[in-house]
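Quarterly update from the structural biology core.
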Amino acid sequence: MPASRTVLLIVAAVSFALIGAALYLQHAHDMLPCPLCVIQRYLFLAVGIAALIGAFAGKIKAGAGVALLAALGGLGVVGKHLYVLANPGFSCGIDPMETMLNKIPTATLLPWLFQADGLCENATDGLFGLSIPQWSAVWFVLLTVTLVWVLVRRAR
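Predicted structure, tokenized:
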């Protein structure tokens, strides 16, 4: 199996595992996801699906490219989330974004996964000294770097 294909499968597994970790925190520790958290879930899912399709379809560069776009989108969203946490007066709270997110089909069909019920500024609890959005940023950076490596690596 080519190394790039293996890397894409690992990227997909990590992305899906991060969704699993988010669900664990939501359902076992009552950490309700805010709108920005839910958008990050969609983007982790997009990274995983694109990487998986690219790996299995043999379209390594295309899969890595689409996954990279999703990871870059994730960096943008998590950047806004970190801005909200750094500026307590700024909130994404109950706003049109939450209402819109909760009405799209994925949220109505899978509310346990995609319904935004929390407040962005409440995402300060975390693990090992980092908040959940900070961890999300770390993972989006790692995924982005990995996907760039797949794109610039020459096939042997």
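The chain has seven helices and two strands.
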